[in-house]
Amino acid sequence: MRLNKYIAHNSKYSRREADKLIEEGKVKINNQYVKDFSYDVQEGDRVFVNGKLIKPKPKHEVTMIVYNKPKGSLVTKKDDRGRTTIYHLLPGKFRHFIPVGRLDFASEGLLLLTDNPYYADILMKSKLPRVYNIKINKPLTNEMIEAMKNGLELDDASAGAHQKSEIKQMSFAPFDGFLVKSEGKNHTKLKVAISEGKNRELRRFFGHFGADVLDLKRVSYGFIELNNLPENKTRYLTKKEYEMLHDFVKEQERLAKKETKEQKKASKEE
User: Each residue of 35-52: pLDDT tens digit?
Assistant: First the structure.
């Protein structure tokens, strides 16, 4: 895990604050000061910030919450423009929790947060379906349907992107599923499921077809659902959800070990 990410995941500091601390020479690894932002923290490394040891979270000790994020809030610890972040809104006891992925400023709905960076990383990299209710300002076209079914490759995916985004080229995998809930002359309401979490992915996808996403609300992430949780409220996972979470993580670990074993075998055969 990159050094700034390791510090942010295991302490009160944001990644930007971690970068500043590294730059100012306040970060020490195994008794040596480090100013290399790309340093990859390995198992056994001891990381100190201002002389204080940053202790990693136990691998399988996890607390996770569901948060119904309101529109007009950023999923970040600090904003240099002074805008509202989710950490302004969350109860203090959750302000060190890590978000599992992002929802942009104008989006709302289910956001998972956890105190365990290992679990956050596995969930973010997983292919668990993310389900959204969305509204676009145009009728659905055959081209949109075709792209939802078969995927889309764009050299310029800037339509629908944030104006300062440097990401241009983007590949969109086929949607896991979609359902037209209602359609009018100037709008379409859809429920869509995707298994990726790319930057403003749905806004870019429909933006390519000249459609603006007017509303976007995430209602589930894999086996965890928002249900009737009120806006700006949190809840802990249920016992059943925790059981499913642990089973899912263990299965991902098993698959990762199997893949590593197969890669080593193939390397030896070469």
Answer: 988 899 998 899 999 999
State the catalytic residues: 104
Quick check: pTM over 0.85?
Answer: no
- Quick check: helix, strand or coil at residue 93? helix
Helices assigned H by DSSP within the chain: 3-9, 15-23, 86-89, 117-125, 142-150, 201-207, 239-269
110 neighbors 219 (Cβ within 8 angstroms): yes
Structure tokens at 249: 């993580």
Backbone angles phi, psi at 8, to 5 degrees: -65, -40
In 10 A of CB 33, how many CB atoms?
11
CA atoms within 13 A on the CB side of 208: 23
State whether residue 146 is helix, strand or coil.
helix
Contact 9, 117 (CB under 8 A): yes
Give me the domains of the chain, ranges plus CATH numbers.
Answer: 3-54 (3.10.290.10), 57-123 (3.30.70.580), 129-221 (3.30.2350.10)
